[in-house]
Design goal:
The protein is of the alpha/beta class. Helices cover about 55% and strands about 10% of the residues. It has helices spanning about 5, 10-35, 40-45, 50-65, 80-100, 110-140, 150-160, 195-200, 215, 220-230, 235-245, 255-260, 270-285, 290-300, 335-340, 345-355, 370-375, 390-395, 405-420, 420-440; strands at about 140-145, 170-175, 190, 205-210, 235, 310-315, 320-325, 355-360, 390.
């Protein structure tokens, strides 16, 4: 797979994070040398200046992350960007104020804090504008040619157009007829009979095959010759998975589930996962105990009825368990609880009981599973892992109201099952925490 998408923009985000950290460090260190009356080296190394600056920098970098400024590289409008970076600077001031309130000796001199914060936010904004306007549009990315214009190809091209930070150029399409309606990138390069001629003229770095009827119309021998010459060739479904971060259900074949170990449970990781889930759930119950108590008290004072309700859900291998939730329907506090997902905090006890995992597919109602299994291919395959308090589908998609929504969520679930790892779980947990804090859950 092309390098930019192999890491799924993690390299791009890491590069931006490193650049931002260097810019902020340079601004704060420069402020100490320009404004302090004492020796800046002594202040930074021996008087606790470096840790104080590091705290403010961490707050600014965290604010940049929470505003999703590492997930999206392109700056479309300057005014909203100015507002976002004002929030970043304000976060630095707020964190510094809280630090001084907790420990008065941790104060960062105003002659360092104000110019360092303002200059740092301004220069980071300037670097983002330069990155967006110059690098993303002028530095050549990997050039792709699509063979055929299937619905999968259309989704891939539309997603690439929404993610310019992937730095991928759609050179065009090889098809007997132009795509209708037109796609947001690329052009018709010629018919299928001119495949070799077009490839030699355009010189793409990769060929992506996306034809509805591959065996009948695909010029197999020409493509084999191109492959043997060193040109990488991939199916559109593979690219779809990397770009859209979900498995392409319409291209999924039973053989992939039968012969591949990627889309099934991994028994050798189960004990480690169980221990990790138990530790995270225990820590969550302890840290969130004040919110659990406040939510329970608010429900009790709001109306009569149980504080915690039990709802049947389908777990691993189709076993039914009782899901624990705070009662939010029919209460005046219910809207607030649902907005910040506070009504779902008792699910942590389901994790401690072994019914659920911290990260996994959304637990479904038992009465819906047979119907969805009949209407959606491979739907029951999501039952090979425990359902989760949060999950890959939950952070990317809202609740499923239709069969189409459930099919799309299944694509996310299958992607998670196929790529299940510690790093992916950590990413889901961190993004869930960010969504909760920002009220975007």
């Amino acid at each position: 797979m092309f390098p930019v998408l192999r890491a799924n923009t993690s390299t791009h985000a890491a590069a931006l994070l490193l650049a931002d950290a260097c810019i902020l460090a340079a601004c704060f260190v420069s402020s100490t040398y320009l404004d302090l009356t004492v020796d800046p080296t002594v202040y930074l190394l021996y008087d606790g200046g470096a840790p104080r600056i590091a705290l403010v920098m961490a707050a600014m970098l965290a604010a940049l992350s929470f505003l999703d400024l590492y997930g999206k590289a392109e700056v479309h409008h300057v005014v909203p960007a100015l507002q976002q970076f004002s929030v970043v600077a304000g976060t630095a001031m707020l964190v510094e104020g809280l630090a001084v309130y907790v420990h008065a000796d941790s104060r960062l001199p105003a002659r360092v804090l104000l110019p360092g914060t303002c200059a740092g936010a301004a220069l980071v904004l300037a670097s983002r504008l330069a990155y967006s306007r110059l690098l993303l549009h002028r530095v050549g990315g990997e050039r792709l040619i699509f063979v055929g214009v299937s619905p999968v190809v259309r989704e891939v091209v539309e997603q690439l157009a929404r993610q310019p930070e992937l730095n991928v150029e759609v050179a065009g399409f090889i098809a007997d007829e132009p795509p209708q309606p037109p796609l947001p990138a690329g052009k018709l390069l010629g018919p299928m009979g001119r495949l070799s001629e077009i490839v030699h003229a355009v010189k793409p770095q990769r060929l992506i095959v996306g034809m509805p009827e591959r065996r009948d119309h695909l010029p197999v021998m020409e493509m084999l010759t191109l492959r043997l010459s060193g040109l990488p060739i991939e199916e559109a479904a593979t690219v779809y998975e990397r770009v859209c971060q979900r498995v392409c259900l319409r291209e999924l074949r039973p053989a992939q589930l039968i012969y591949s170990g990627e889309l099934g449970p991994q028994a050798h990781r189960s004990p480690a996962e169980l221990l990790t889930d138990y530790l995270i759930a225990s820590a969550g119950v302890v840290l969130l105990a004040p919110f659990l108590a406040l939510a329970a008290l608010a429900i009790r004072l709001d109306s009569r009825g149980p504080v915690v309700v039990r709802e049947p859900r389908t777990g691993r291998r189709g076993q039914v368990f009782q899901l624990l939730k705070f009662r939010s329907v029919g209460t005046r506090t219910g809207r607030l609880l649902r907005k910040y997902r506070l009504d779902e905090l008792p699910k942590l006890f389901n994790v401690l009981r072994g019914d659920m995992s911290v990260v996994g597919p959304r637990p479904e109602r038992p009465e819906l599973v047979p119907s969805l299994s009949q209407q959606i291919p491979f739907y029951r395959h999501r039952l090979c892992v425990k359902p989760g308090v949060t999950g890959w589908a939950q952070i990317h998609d809202s609740f499923a109201d239709t069969v189409e929504d459930a099919a799309r969520q299944l694509e996310y679930d299958l992607y998670y099952i196929k790529n299940k790892s510690w790093s992916l779980d950590l990413s889901v947990v961190l993004r869930t925490a960010k969504n909760l804090i920002l009220g975007q859950a």
